[in-house]
Amino acid sequence: MSPIWGLLLLIVLFLAGFPVPYAIAGGAMFIMKFSTGMKWMSITSNMIGGVNSFTILCIPLFLLAGKLMNECGITDRLFRSARAIIGWVPGGLGHVNILASFIFAGMSGTAVADAAGLGQIEIKAMEDAGYDRDFSAAITASSSTLGPIVPPSMPLVVYGMVSGVSVGALLVAGVLQGFVIALCMAALVTVYAIKRKYPRDKFVSWEKTLHDLVGGILPTFTPVIIILGIYTGIFPPTEAAAICVVYASFLGVVVYRELTPKRYWAVL
To answer: Which residue, among 144, 117, 138, 114, has the nearest Cα to 126 in the 3D structure?
Structure first.
């Protein structure tokens, strides 16, 4: 049977509103069954065997940690803390956008989580300050791509599992690459800010600056825990993900007290 039938089935499933993973799996299983004669039992057992990995368990755990961070208002605190650090330079909020995304990437591991969690806060703040909407959206979209690069990176975990490369080594390697990309973004923001005369934040007081910094310092320990723990060999990526879940739960329940049992259950 020609693979074109599998492609047609994929398109039909997309048009019918099937979720993307199910549509892709359905098209692939259709081709495997009718092109190779493979039995349904063999297909399902291979699918289960493909995800039967202790390493891949860190993906749902990192996603859970990121969701817990979002639910207890950490994104707001993170944005205010980044603004206190770098909001005073030319194009301040553009740099805040990049810095906050860099830090949040160390909690979520995905670009979509970054854009959805921090994006709304960043774009609204930039528009209120007088930045162009297209410029604000462009920076938000670009900075969110740090999510799949800075550890914990979901794509790097999957790549390491499939290729056999050390997941820990991949995650540690992502730090430098993410840092260089963030610096390049910041340089471009500075050029546009000077050219278009975008505003910068005015210094209010040391007391407020210190307050904003303290408010966002605890969440920033999340990527530090991951990187140091994996680099020093204290724990592998999966255990690092579990520790991040415990840390996020501690912040939400004990420190910030915004995660009630009902909200915690909803996140789970």
So the answer is: 138
